[in-house]
Amino acid sequence: MLTPDQKQQFDQDGFLVLENAFAAGELEKVRKAALAIVDEFDIDRHRTVFKTTDRDAGRDDYFFDSAEAVHCFLEEGALGADGELIRPKELAINKMGHAMHDLVPEFGDFCRLPLIGQVLRDLGYSHPTLWQTMYIFKQPGIGGEVRWHQDASYLITSPPNVIGMWIAMEDATRDNGCLWMIPGQHRSPLREIFRVDWESRTGTLTTLDETPWQIGTDPVAMEVPAGSAVLFHDHMPHYSSQNTSDKSRHALTLHLSDRADSWLAENWLQRPGLGHFLL
Ligand code: FE2
């Protein structure tokens, strides 16, 4: 699936763009399934906001339990000062996660498309294991900023070996909050780690290294058409701005490792009931 040049580029830059990797029909099945889940979602029962600007202080049981469920999280900008919704529900969800691949057949079928497993095998993952799926809405006007971070801060294996596959469900541009990455910075140190104490069921983000993000002139915008995939290393710093445009920017994200890697107990995401999802 991947050429030697592509493999070398992934190794050198820490990310790789695969333009138009998925057909429109495949995306549409996932998108429809995601919208059907939102339609069923009871917003009066769950008001957990997902934002990244509070050092993850908002992670609660509804978030932790989503490791083995399909839960919807709200945009900060979707609630008024009184905590009431100020937008239609379908324009209020920040993202859903994190076990759609196990629990929603359309997501499971998509994740089992041969291309995904093959790309991982080409990168040396002999038994690709899918830990989580996220469907991110990046709603028009309010889709929240995701601050600079490295995914190895949130998904921890020994050795560090998680790979992200970010798939554009809609065209991603600077205007609607595309991803930004910094070529080569996957070799920089891990800045933070989010660990959960399971007795108190609280998560804490701890700073490990004060090295600044190299965001002066180096970041590259991942402006890609719908159906494109961006693969990235778990130490790659990445960011996306608030979506101030009038267009949404839906994306599906998969995080994988190899079955042989140890999945650590302090990870917020634990799947004792679902086990390994192998591709
Ligand atoms: Fe991330």
Please outline the helices and strands.
Elements: H1 4-13, E1 15-18, H2 24-40, H3 61-64, E2 70-74, E3 93-98, H4 100-103, H5 105-111, H6 114-122, E4 128-136, E5 146-149, E6 157-158, E7 163-168, E8 179-181, E9 192-197, E10 202-207, E11 220-221, E12 229-233, E13 238-240, E14 251-258, E15 262-263
Antiparallel strand pairs: 1-12, 2-3, 3-4, 4-14, 5-13, 6-15, 7-12, 7-14, 8-11, 8-13, 9-10
Bound molecules: fe (ii) ion.
Fe (ii) ion binds at residues 149, 151, 238.
Short description:
18% of the residues lie in helices and 25% in strands. It is α+β, with helices and mostly antiparallel strands.
Number of domains: 1
Bound molecules: fe (ii) ion
Query: How do the helices and strands follow one another from N- to C-terminus?
Result: HEHHEEHHHEEEEEEEEEEEE
Report the total helices. Answer: 6
Count every beta strand, where a strand is a DSSP E run of 2 or more residues: 15
Distance between the termini: 15 Å
Proportion in β-strands = 25-35%
Report mean pLDDT, rounded to a whole number: 94
CATH architecture: Sandwich
CATH topology descriptor: Jelly Rolls
- Fourth CATH level, the homologous superfamily: q2cbj1_9rhob like domain
State the shape. globular
Structural class designation? alpha+beta
Question: Can you put this structure into words, describing what you see?
Answer:
- By secondary structure, the chain is an alpha+beta fold.
- The protein has a single domain (4-263), classed as q2cbj1_9rhob like domain (Jelly Rolls), CATH 2.60.120.620.
- 18% of the residues lie in helices and 25% in strands.
- The chain has six helices and 15 strands.
- The chain has a seven-stranded antiparallel β-sheet with strand order 1-12-7-14-4-3-2. Strands 5-13-8-11 form a four-stranded antiparallel β-sheet, with no helix packed on it.
- A hairpin with a 4-residue loop joins strand 9 and strand 10.
- The model has no long low-confidence stretch (mean pLDDT 94).
- Fe (ii) ion is lined by residues 149, 151, 238.
